[in-house]
Amino acid sequence: MKYKLEDIANYARVSVSTVWRVINNKDIVKGETRNRVLDAIEALDYRMDNIFTNPQTMYKYNIAIFLRENDYKKVFELKYGIERMTEPIAFKKKIESSGGKALFFEMDDLSASDLDKLIDRKNIHGVIVFGAEDSDHELVIRLKNIGVSFIVTNGISDFVKNNGISFVEYDDFNGIADIVKYFKENERTNLVMFNGPDKMWVCQERKNAFYYSIKKLKIADNPLFYYSGEFDFKTGQEGVLKLKELGLIKKVNGIICGSDVIAIGVINELLRMKIDIPDEIAVFGYDDTPICEYFNPSISSVKRDLKHYSTYIVERLYDLIFTKNKLQIHIYIKTYPVYRKST
Fold first, then answer.
1. Are 176 and 192 in contact, with CB atoms under 8 Å apart?
2. pLDDT digits over 165-188, tens only?
3. Residues 147-166: pLDDT tens digits?
4. Which CATH superfamily is domain 172-303 in?
5. Topology (CATH) of 58-171+306-338
6. Whole-model pTM above 0.85?
7. Which is nearest to 85 in space by CA: 141, 121, 128, 119?
8. Where are the domains of the chain?
9. Please, are residues 294 and 301 in contact by the beta-carbon 8 Å criterion?
10. How far, in Å, CA of 305 to CA of 167, rounded?
11. Contact between 140 and 334 (Cβ < 8 Å)
């Protein structure tokens, strides 16, 4: 069955305008009302129609993806999102390929002043900016001034919102807030966080959520400890060693990690120190990658379905292309905590 905004509104017991605000702007509707709308969207499996796109011509477009070397593990999922939108159309038209291509560019190799030439030379119709950081302000503004359709994702900031730039993003703020709330409900209030690089917008969002939630839930004015590194095993290991060095390892009873890979590094180091998980220290990861279920102990994590997410980003980008940027898309996708043996 195909649902409309009115169906979501009826299910959530709110107005259609409230549903629209939740879909387009995180800051207007908050709390229980916002969660009811998100739950209704999930329950009815609602997806915004590509009412502005013409499926007979979508396969022709070249989509550029700007990302960094440490994001290349996301390449296949993003490529999947593009191909899922275009390849069925190519198949129906009985042609060998979709015609359009996914073009990947390393952001650190791009120059804002040369973007015009790149877009013309490669015949690029739309751009996905994936995993941007503070140093990318000029690049993002240049894309806007050129007039090419583009969406920022996997890390946004006030800079993006204040400049009227379209984005599709996971609701990582509430993802982290859910973990802090869970820990408090289970009487774990000596919390620390090991995160990826603070220069990345996605890491800034998670850090802000951690500090905000600690204070809002009256756990403390500031966290017991916060550590920023990379999205790797080493960051998890170094974070635990730092706790030991500072004399905090016996005090901590909950560790929040900015990725599942960091969580694995944390767990390995805690087990090496013969610290019981979760009795002494509980560990929560982020992204809910497949290894979480099969690791020992299995890792609690926050679920982000990247394949569905990447398809959704491409759908919204096509909407921008076909309306010639007349839309402004501000969408947050809900995340879900998954509880396993590490907590």
1. no
2. 988 888 899 999 999 999 999 999
3. 999 999 877 778 888 888 98
4. Response regulator (3.40.50.2300)
5. Rossmann fold (3.40.50)
6. no
7. 128
8. 5-43, 58-171+306-338, 172-303
9. no
10. 17
11. no
